[in-house]
């Protein structure tokens, strides 16, 4: 393939103050790396899609410049919200891509219950799944709490730890609820009222998830953030980071106060081969429900006995703060784009 012989469209969201939403340095790095691999990328938003062309942005001379492009050979979906993704305009656009046999990947966010049902049906996973149920009834939810004594309640469509809370049963009528900002003691009646309030949020279903007592390092609970990509036919682990929860916080997300720990300093040392093998197996299983999946990150915890537990999956990972992981991610992403573009230009679907 000759220089700039294929186009990659990066689909991002609209923004009131900027040309588009999303991680601009990430998009710049993709454009720079693609140039080394004979490709060109442009960023575009849902409003910029026309019947034959797309108005997109390329980074030139230290600024984003708007230009008109033909439809690309590959589309990389970085839409930031489910609302944008589920809009009629985007659904029509995805249908057009299918008709034109233009490959695209990661076309929708994960649903926590859907992914749980997918994975719990896989009997040979090399990783444990916390017992989970949908919040559908206050009595059933209270029984779930009494069974496990420590649970999380998560919006099934949530991301970056938003909306998560934990519940701990301390005795028959003494419970502790913790949100991202505070903790509060509740009676049994208070727990019932909490479940009832969440059930009334008709636009946001919730998942009940068994809490796991994690191994700690220097008094901090932590988990492993595993980044995977599928450049061609097999999943690859691009990197493994470690995220620790701040004191009295319930999630390890850096946006919620989480901290980055050096992977090599964690003790006891993690079995990298076992962690890598388990992560690849999870990604492969998810591919059966999400056949267009080619990138994801997994949040994997390690309990006090050394066992691995899968807590979260993300189909649109944020940038990794570990520079070597993020650099490798961009390289492997561009290899993925090039592979898919080559197949399309060769007429191979």
Mean pLDDT: 91
User: Sheet with the most strands?
Assistant: 6 strands, antiparallel
Tertiary shape: globular
Strand order in the largest sheet? 7-12-8-9-10-11
Uncertain segments are: none
Number of H/I helices: 8
Radius of gyration: 22 Å
Q: Strand-and-helix sequence, N→C?
A: EHEEEEHHEHEHEEEEHEEEEEHEEH
Strand content: 25-35%
* SSE class: alpha+beta
> How many angstroms separate the termini?
18 Å
Count of strand segments: 18
In helices, the fraction of residues equals 25-40%
Write the layout of secondary structure elements.
Elements: E1 6-11, H1 24-36, E2 39-44, E3 53-60, E4 63-70, E5 74-77, H2 82-85, H3 88-99, E6 104-105, H4 112-120, E7 132-134, H5 138-148, E8 150-155, E9 165-171, E10 174-178, E11 183-186, H6 188-199, E12 206-210, E13 216-217, E14 220-229, E15 236-244, E16 259-261, H7 272-289, E17 295-302, E18 308-314, H8 323-345
Parallel strand pairs: 1-2, 1-5, 5-6
Antiparallel strand pairs: 3-4, 7-12, 8-9, 8-12, 9-10, 10-11, 13-14, 14-15, 14-17, 15-16, 17-18
Helix pairs in contact: 1-8, 5-6
Question: What report would you give on this structure?
Answer:
The protein has 349 residues and is α+β, with helices and mostly antiparallel strands. Helices cover 29% and strands 30% of the residues. The chain has eight helices and 18 strands. It is globular, with a radius of gyration of 22 Å.
């Amino acid at each position: 393939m000759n220089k700039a012989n294929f186009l990659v469209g990066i689909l991002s969201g609209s923004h009131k103050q900027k040309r588009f939403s999303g991680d601009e340095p990430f998009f710049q790095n993709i454009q720079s790396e693609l140039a080394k691999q004979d490709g060109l990328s442009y960023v575009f938003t849902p409003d910029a899609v026309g019947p034959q062309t797309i108005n997109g942005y390329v980074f030139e001379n230290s600024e984003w410049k708007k230009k008109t492009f033909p439809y690309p050979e590959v589309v990389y979906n970085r839409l930031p919200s489910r609302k944008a993704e589920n809009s009629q305009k985007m659904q029509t656009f995805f249908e057009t891509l299918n008709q034109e046999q233009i490959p695209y990947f990661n076309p929708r966010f994960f649903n926590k219950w859907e992914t749980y049902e997918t994975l719990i049906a896989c009997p040979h996973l090399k990783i444990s799944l916390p017992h989970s149920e949908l919040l559908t009834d206050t009595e059933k939810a209270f029984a779930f709490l009494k069974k496990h004594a420590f649970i999380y309640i998560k919006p099934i469509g949530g991301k970056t730890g938003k909306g998560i809370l934990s519940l701990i049963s301390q005795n028959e009528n003494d419970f502790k609820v913790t949100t991202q900002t505070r903790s509060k003691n509740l009676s049994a009646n208070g727990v019932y009222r909490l479940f009832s309030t969440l059930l009334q949020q008709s636009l946001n279903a919730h998942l009940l998830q068994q809490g796991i007592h994690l191994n700690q390092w220097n008094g901090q609970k932590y988990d492993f953030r595993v980044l995977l990509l599928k450049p061609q036919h097999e999943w690859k682990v691009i990197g493994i980071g470690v995220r620790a929860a701040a004191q009295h916080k319930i999630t390890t997300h850096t946006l919620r106060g989480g901290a980055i720990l050096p992977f090599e300093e964690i003790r006891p040392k993690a079995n990298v081969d076992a962690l890598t093998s388990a992560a690849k197996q999870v990604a492969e299983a998810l591919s059966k429900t999400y056949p267009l999946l080619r990138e994801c990150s997994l949040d994997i915890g390690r309990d006090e006995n050394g066992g691995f537990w899968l807590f979260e999956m993300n189909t649109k990972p944020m940038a990794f703060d570990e520079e070597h992981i993020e650099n490798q991610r961009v390289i492997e992403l561009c290899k993925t784009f090039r592979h898919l573009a080559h197949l399309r230009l060769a007429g191979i679907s």
